[in-house]
Amino acid sequence: MKKIILFIITALMFVGCNQAQSEKCKSLEIENAQIEKDINSYMTAWNLFFDTRDSKAINTDSFDEQVTVVTASGNITGIDAFRNYYNNYLTGFSDAEFTFIDVLDKGIK
Known about the structure:
Layout: H1 2-52, E1 68-69, E2 76-77, H2 79-92
Antiparallel strand pairs: 1-2
């Protein structure tokens, strides 16, 4: 009888652990899908900005209203300041070409 009870407890623990891992896996899959979506949105906006040289591509559809650029001389905060900062690159370096090397999302640890 003790063996049967021990078997049942072990089986319940195993099922419970698998369900917890399954929920964690689902959560990670959802998080990864959102990160992938964010990165694609980000890259689409930047490609449009660099290809068309139109600063209107930097907007709240792809960037947070309080977006922050960290620079050596201080942070630049807000979508308009962000747009103006990068627009200077377009006007200052009219023949510049841009390449993505790495793209990270805030969710990546």
